[in-house]
Amino acid sequence: MLGENEEIKQVPVVKDSYNLVYMVEHQKLKLINHIRPIHLLTTLALYLMGSGFARYLGERIDYSTFLLGLAWIFSVQLGFYFLGDHFKIPFDRGLFARFPVKTDENSPDSYHPREILLYISVSFFTAGAVLSSLLILQGVLNLSIAVLMGLFFVGFLLLVVPGISLVHSGVGEIITSFTLVIIPPAFAFFMQYGSLHQILTLGIFPLFPLHAALIILLQLKRYSDDLKQNEKNLLVRIGWVQGIFIHNLMVLSGFLLFGAAVLFGFPVRLIGLVFLTLPVAVYLIYYLSKLKDGAPVRWPLIRLLSLVVFFLPVYLLTYSSWVK
């Protein structure tokens, strides 16, 4: 009987262990939701690309400056992500339809009180201020870099702060793409090269419409929910049929800009590999054009193709600039 009782007493321990594992995994899922890994990956890839362009032009990479700049960008970016979740204005919610940001402060199982999100945000901003001071002490900061840092900060500010947030104004997607796609590579390039060069402008501006198209397409899955909740993002304002048309137009314009870049002197050996993505882009446009005719919607395929159309050119440009 004693052995049986001991076995019975061990059951709650096993149950508690299971609950602990579940809570840890739940916390990991919510942490992924807060840090926006797709956006962080976008920033990292484009930052590497900007530095790669400087390296291609013959500049020797200062890795201490490189790491300080990257840390500053991540600090500001993560600070605004947590701040947006604190204010319940999550940054670019369309990318995370499967992991919506929800915080029930009255629930005993609430994973993050809003105050904690605010404290984390302030911690990242403090780190960003310290890193800014280190950049000043290193003598790296000039007017151009300071302007880019200011634009990066203001871009996020216009999207996540109540009262001034433009996330549902119809231009939130444009501000998002400009902040994430234009500023990080330009910031990295100026940190290493020190001045503007046409290889930077010709290399990064074609990515702007590709990223805007990515955001529009990834919002498509939750279009009906956004419509019911009267959330006036760009896709809701123009309708999903017109949204697909604009997406396709943006994808085509991105590759046309890549072609124009060659005509204006962008090195073919840098940009040539980008056109390997063109068949994928053409298939995505063809597939989406069939949706209005009643073709079956395969969300995993749409999501994969949309990510490939943006990230593969970024990867190929980055690879070419660092290797060649």
Structure description:
This protein is an all-alpha fold. The protein has helices at 2-35, 37-56, 63-86, 114-137, 143-160, 172-193, 198-204, 207-219, 223-228, 234-238, 240-263, 268-271, 278-289, 299-323. It is flat. The termini are far apart.
Entry keywords:
73% helix, 14 helices, 0% strand, disordered N terminus, 2 domains, mainly alpha, 324 residues
Per-chain topology:
Layout: H1 2-35, H2 37-56, H3 63-86, H4 114-137, H5 143-160, H6 172-193, H7 198-204, H8 207-219, H9 223-228, H10 234-238, H11 240-263, H12 268-271, H13 278-289, H14 299-323
Short characterization:
The chain has helices at residues 2-35, 37-56, 63-86, 114-137, 143-160, 172-193, 198-204, 207-219, 223-228, 234-238, 240-263, 268-271, 278-289, 299-323.
Structural class: mainly alpha
Low-confidence stretches: 1-11, 13-26, 94-111
Approximately how much beta-strand content do the residues carry?
under 5%
Straight-line N-to-C gap: 76 Å
Regarding quaternary structure, what we see is single chain
- The general outline is flat
State the helix count.
Answer: 14
What is the H-and-E element order? HHHHHHHHHHHHHH
The level of helicity is over 70%
Radius of gyration: 23 Å
Overall number of domains: 2
Tell me about the largest β-sheet: none
What is the average of the pLDDT values? 83
> Tally of extended strands?
0
